[in-house]
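Researcher: Here's my situation. A collaborator sent me these components and asked whether they could plausibly form a single complex. I don't have experimental data yet, so a predicted model of the whole assembly would be a useful starting point for our discussion.
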Amino acid sequence: MDNKLYVSSSPHIRSGNTTRRIMLDVIIALLPTSVAACVIFGFRSAVLIAVCVATCVLLEFISRKIMKRESTIGDLSAVVTGLLLALNLPVDVNPLIAMFGCLIAIVVVKQMFGGIGMNFVNPALAARIVLLVSFPSAMMHWVTAWGAPEAAKIDATTSATPLAAEAGTYSYIDLLIGRCGGSIGEVCAAALILGGIYLVIRRVISPIIPCVYLATAALMSFAFGLDPLYQLLSGGLLLGAIFMATDYTTSPVTNWGKVIYAVGCGLFTMLLRTYSNMPEGVSFSILLMNILVPLIERMTVPRTLGYVKKAKGEKK
Amino acid sequence: MDQLSFPKRPYPTRGGVHAPHNKNTAHKESLEMPVPKMVALPMSQHIGAPCVPLVKVGDNVDVGQCIARSEAFVSAPIHASVSGKVKKIDKITMPDGNRLDAIFIESDGEQRISPEVKPPEVNSISDLLTAVRESGLVGLGGAGFPTAVKLNIPADKHVDTMIVNVAECEPYITSDHREALENGWDIISGIITVKEFLDIHRVIVGIENNKPDAIKALREIVDNSLDPEDEIRVLPLKATYPQGAEKILIKACTGREVPMGGLPSDAGCLVMNVGSIAFIARYLKTGMPLVSRRLTVDGSAIKNPSNVIVPIGTPIKDVIEFVGGYKEEPKKILMGGPMMGISLPNDELYILKQNNAILAFGEKEARLAEPSACIRCGKCVSACPMRLLPLELCNAAERKDDEALGRLNAMNCMECGCCSFTCPAKRHLVQSIRMGKAYLNQKKREQIAQSKGGKN
């Protein structure tokens, strides 16, 4: 035989799943939310999304070039980051501010720490928080959503977010279909839930993190005397629980780790919502739990098959 | 002692992957291959000490004649699979890269049976062990552990359950499936022999539910009054890889876990491959040692995939030619299944005793996956049947962190390949973990050498 054979280590077959396919699924899952954003806040939402996605991809390309590393824009992770960041912004934010956010997300948080899989916090969330702290008024300027109730209006163009508004201003239906103020991607609860169901069916995410996160938040609201359903449907909780807290790189890989992480997210979210000056606590609580992930994972190494606990005094 | 019960359905097992079954040869009658011109019998076709040749160049040998053996406890003698003349004894390179002696026999085509071949007289457990050892039998499922050693259960271990492994979870391979369909009676009589001598009163035949015909065939034989005490039952298992891995099979059939670093007997189990158990029955009847075996020849580059019964030592090239040759240029040839098989450097090697399949693939299937960065998706963690953390083990292995490898129980990895199979970033997880295990072993040896050095 004269032709050369491939000789490699087993296994010799691989599943068809790829990183690119997973990222594509996340993009598909975010489509209903993106479309809803365009309907609710108009054409500017589409421009904002396009600006963020394009900037993220471009910055990813440039930073890999500068570091003389293989380009990774093909895995679509930069698209996901750009899309998530855009969905976390108010619709009338200055595009330059949005682009600055992309710089923080892709260059500082992601590529400076080694690129995909190496960032210790969620890039889009970290960027959002940097923007929130740097440009508080621009980042909390909530343009009135299409069809939002009159009572929520603050002035001619803006209205209160569900968490800031007085009780009874918004109905559950308003929250579900997004007739309320907020970031372009967080207002329409129905679209977010639809995306979440798609991700679970496609087995892209395990339902543990979103379910435990939401359950903890609901229990806490109940304990604080708040309306649990209203709390779940308002603010960035669904967007955070379904799309941000489930980010692979910054959430635990073990099942019990996921539970602890999600409980932590739920606790901090409700504590911040109730006691801090900020009306919203989702971003901060996920970021905080992101940092704890290595510790949580170390605590929750699963018991391997056949593991026998060493008796006391027995030498290792 | 409690009456042992039979599970109605398998106990739950964790992890595993749905690898494509590709059991293309399951419904094809096995073909008997004609005697090849030349066979080569390497001195090690088992786990344990290699054999030493008993014949010289120029000697005439007959089928079934013992031509090499070793006195070491863990070993298995080797028998001539054809009649003819010993042409040469020369070093060959084995699939794992080791070089060792092989006896080359030029066949005279007569297939004269050696006078040594006569049914053994077996009246006790020690007779059985001697007979099985003399038969040269090793685990035919792929590992090649000498069966006589496996059946020799230490006095301090209590084995109450025998599991017959017909799971055959590796894609493509159907040799066990065909064994169950074609030799059902041998299987059951082998089971009865072993269970009587070893005083085992619960036998579970574990078989994946993707082989309904084999389940039906075996159940019919078991029910046909051969088993009056109802001590043998067929248990259909879920068809996920790796149901047939020893530790997973034991978990699925009995709910017991083999302790880390332990053997099946530590969980009170004896696991026998179906081909091995049927061979024992045939050997006791005929006295013909292990000189041929059934194997699956398949893969995208094979023209006519089939199960073939071949003399041990037949050149792989001859076997492939016998089933019609290649239909496209082979780019990867495997000894064993696609999940755990060894990839060969060429088709110039020979069929070994433990060799259950030869697979050949064209360029498309053979092309190596290009790894990219780990995205920590955790799919390897959910796929690992041993409940390890493959991504962490892989990292620890790559940075040679023996503390982390030990803490994460690297040695409990059985290299089934589920993690690499499922990885969307196509990382070579098993390969790295294998390196990590080798590194741990090396460290251990160094430590032992050091502590010995300190005493002197």
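Model: Some features of this prediction you could bring to your collaborator: DSSP finds 13 helices and no strands in chain A. Residues 19-299 of chain A form a domain with the Ammonium transporter fold fold (CATH 1.10.3430).
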